[in-house]
Amino acid sequence: MKRLITSKQNKTFKLYQSLKLKKFRDQHGLFLVYGDHLIPMAQKKGVIVEIITSNPDKEGTLYDKSLMDELQQAETYFDQIAVCKKDQTPRISDRVLIMDDVQDPDNVGALIRSAAAFGFLHIILSPHCADLYNEKTIRASKGSIFDVYVERKNLSQALTDLKLQGYQLLYADAHESGSHEPSQKTALIVGNEGRGISDEVKKRSDGAIHIETRHVESLNVSVAGAILMYLWRIL
């Protein structure tokens, strides 16, 4: 019979509960993954430290339901949670997606999902983007965070490095005209939901790319990014 964890004072439970906050995810290098769809993806990636569950018929350390209730972060209740270690293995891709302060975790997750689908296997997040390991980001990515290489770094340095590696740097803009075609090695930059691309990033880029629309002034950043990544896809 499985041992049942029941105390809220349990040190491991308190650690796992703290992982709902970014500062503790960063401090411990751990994050939480929820549900029957995402946990197998984390298993395949080899990043699971422990699985916990309130269902005695499922794999994992058995926790009382009252403790599992404390670990929930979405409206949907999950009776199985994986505690995972952060593990980003560098990989080279001729298509790179760069996010310039995209702050909504749903947008970041959706963009990561599209990037995985269309061959943008290297993703760079600016320091003020939503956290990669936010539960909403992971859920919106449908687990695609396990299929790509994501790093968070200063964009000035990132763009300089990519230039030296021969990448063409193009940013999406709702107002500037641009019809640049991607070169063999291209980085697509998408901007903040409110202000778009920062002036500093524009200065360091090779030009803008614009999506023609009717009746609407601009598209949601995750929609625009998906369209451009599809057009420039490497499958």
Model description:
By secondary structure, the chain is an alpha/beta fold. It has 9 helices and 11 strands. Strands 8-7-6-10-9-11 form a 6-stranded parallel β-sheet, with helices on both faces. Strands 1-4-3-5-2 form a 5-stranded mixed β-sheet. Helix 6 (135-141) links the parallel strand 7 (122-125) and strand 8 (149-152). Helix 5 runs parallel beside helix 6 (135-141) and helix 5 (105-117) runs parallel beside helix 9. The longest helix has 13 residues, at 105-117. It is elongated, with a radius of gyration of 20 Å. The mean pLDDT is 93.
Could you outline the blueprint of secondary structure elements for this entry?
Blueprint: E1 4-5, H1 11-18, H2 22-28, E2 30-34, H3 35-45, E3 48-53, E4 61-63, H4 65-71, E5 80-85, E6 95-100, H5 105-117, E7 122-125, H6 135-141, E8 149-152, H7 155-164, E9 168-172, E10 186-191, H8 199-204, E11 207-209, H9 221-231
Parallel strand pairs: 1-4, 3-4, 6-7, 6-10, 7-8, 9-10, 9-11
Antiparallel strand pairs: 2-5, 3-5
